[in-house]
Amino acid sequence: MSYQQSSSVITRKARVWPELPADTVTLPTPPALPDLPQSSIYTTIFLSLAGLAVYGYVFANLNIGEVNFLIVPFITISGSMAAGSLIVFLVQLVRALRHRRYLVQHYHTQLQEVEQRLKLLHWHERQAWMELDPPLARFEYKSSVYKHLDVKPLLQYPYSDQNMSLWARRPGDPDFLRMRIGIEQRPATYTIRDQRGEDSISLPARLKSEGNYAKSLLEAYARVFVPLCVDLRQQSPLAIVGASHRIVLARELMHSIVSQVAYHHSPEDVRIIILAPYSQEVAWQWTSIIPHTLLYDARLDGTPMPDTYQERACAIGTAAVMDQLPVISRELGRRALLLDDGQQQSQWPHLLIVVDAFDGPGDLDQPTPTLPAMAIPPSHPTQYRRTRLSDSPLRRPEMALALSRGHQLGVSVLCLCTSQSQMPQTSQLFIDISEEQPPSALLPASEEKVASKKKHKKTATEEEDQLMVGIQARVHSLRENPQSARHCLQLDSAGLEDLRSLALRLQSLRAMSTRQLKMRTQVDLSTLFDPPLDLNTYDPFVLWNDPLFRTPRPMLRFPIGLKVGDEVQYLDLHRDGPHGLLIGQTGSGKSELLQTIVLSLAFLYKPTEVNFLLIDHRAGLAWRPFAHLPHTTGFLTNVSSPAAIRRFVTMLGTEANRREALLKEGKTLPSLVIIIDEFTEMIRSETSVLDDLLNIMQMGHKLEMYVLLAAQRPEEMIISRVREYVQYRLCLRCSSPEDSREVLRRADAAALPASIPGRGYLLHGDNQLDLFQAARVTLPFIQDQMASAQAQLNSLLSLPFKGK
User: Fold this and answer.
1) Is the dihedral of CA 51, 56, 57, 58 positive or negative?
2) Domain named FtsK: which ranges (predicted)?
3) Measured between alpha carbons, how far is 537 from 659 in angstroms, rounded to an integer?
4) Which residues are annotated as a binding site for ATP?
5) Annotation: binding site
6) For the whole model, what pTM was predicted?
7) Of 46, 280, 423, 538, which has the fewest CB atoms closer than 10 Å, so is most exposed?
8) Worst-scoring range by mean pLDDT, 87-91, 222-226, 503-507?
9) CATH pick for 525-797 out of 3.40.50.300, 3.40.50.1580, 3.40.50.1100, 3.10.450.50
């Protein structure tokens, strides 16, 4: 798994979000069925038939001839009334029954139309959620959870620049570090409005089946099976708790979460750190080749490095964990300091620290035996403790900031515990997969039947499958006023073969950098040249003969740092000078910037083109490595007494007169760069030398003399006189806005971060203000390399190119 592959660059794509339905579906109101014929019709028919019977009896039993002709009309009338009433009754009854049947059928048709619409909305929502968070590899496609869905596992996507979902999530997205752990059932995004009200409880018998149909629609489509996701950024630390007999299932869930993080997030946005015991080396070996475990180094942010220099933050075993913990501590401390300085968290990649359980035999080192009471303890006991890991990394002090201020520092912690007592005290969320099912005596009859089916592993249809999904895990929130636990019905897992396949496909990918507009926090001077200087094979003649900085005479243009977007910041003594002012309080990087200026000039220009005169009011430790440079013609330290200061000014006057005489003779002289550190202290000791110094600066450009005055803070009385004689101004962090205004006419330098030495402003040209990060030099290299090349540099002085 260590072989090299050709890398492929992955660029960010525009995200196409699946549309979630937000419709409102209203269940139809049950119809009001018409009443059947009233009881008055029955009474009329009954009385008519009774009168007809009475008249018939009288007509049949009384032989009164003269009244027979009177009885017949009554019989006829009563019979007609009875027949008419019966006919009216039957007509009304048929009409009422037909209308009732029509209303019931129409209501049933409306319910069917609503069901078709709900089916479509239900499918759209399930499909949308599955597209956002598909499973890694395997899933039960026959399950009702995935029924009718077009689900494509992550391993089946192309791992190329054509993949729209690969590394698509960005820090500003709502689903950044929101990872799937399984399947849950929750209310749908669309709304089902039930307008039946309380009347649905007392429906007529003819509408009972239709009412049950409407009720089943409400129960079946009001909730949706969707991925259950947890937010690693907002809910950190997150603990997965699995008892000893389910620890394998808990570790598979952790693997699934880490694999999704690696697929959905670019290494530019998320870096992963693994802390695992040696017993789990096989389980975590796949993470050692994914690009997300490359060790994050702020000094190398955005710079591709050869594979030989790449370190992995995959610590497996106690020794590797003990080596990784100080790295984590330093990075967290650096972020805390930058955060206190007002820097935004979005400037750093998010760190995900994954801590496996250290509970197995041999996972931890045995504690050091207690020393006898009279034994003398070692002089440095911490040396011995640093090499042993006798407790879980979660309890180490190096992890304190990650557990307490992780959200502020852009750090998330995902840990595996075998019991709740091992969870970090600051845990925000924990996934409990160690809970057992309740006893069957406590289950309702329906759930007991389902549990019985599941226990005996009987086959089930797809409709029964939904009922047989049991709770496999519970997600508990530990914040104040927590909501009820969320139930995970199907828990995700990832097999080792799937994880290896994912890692091998991610191994050769790298992200197209989107952080180029970010200013670096540390810059190496050797990288500012084209090509970058190889310090092991450095040849001074290569740059000394480079025509880029000679057209045709030396330009005195040299790099001093980087601006936003890795643009090189140059200082041009001809265009920006000749004289300058450098202000920076203690710890701002002033001495390092002075060293950068001297060494950058020494790299680019020959000793016959540029000379240095280095003066320090104090001990001059910053200048000592440059004392033996062939460019250095003068190296003065401890110039603090009035007599020493006076001798220095006299020397400058003599040099100015000598140069003036030689120039009149037409001779060419090397440019003399005079750097005076702590000049305000020197002038305060001998105020009369300021006038002489300003006189020399006034004619310095004609004499090829360039003066740079450096101090910790601007003295108002001194700076007010010097300001007219300096053309460019370098200002690092100042102690107050007033000091910044003295130099830049604005208070920006007072707001520079204290945690980033070398960050400053250059005011030059036509009031052009540039923010830059000063380059740093490695003093041991300068001293050793220049000493070894001293013979070559001395031989250069004897070459006949003087004046050319």
Assistant:
1) positive
2) 565-741
3) 37
4) 584-591
5) 584-591
6) 0.67
7) 46
8) 87-91
9) 3.40.50.300
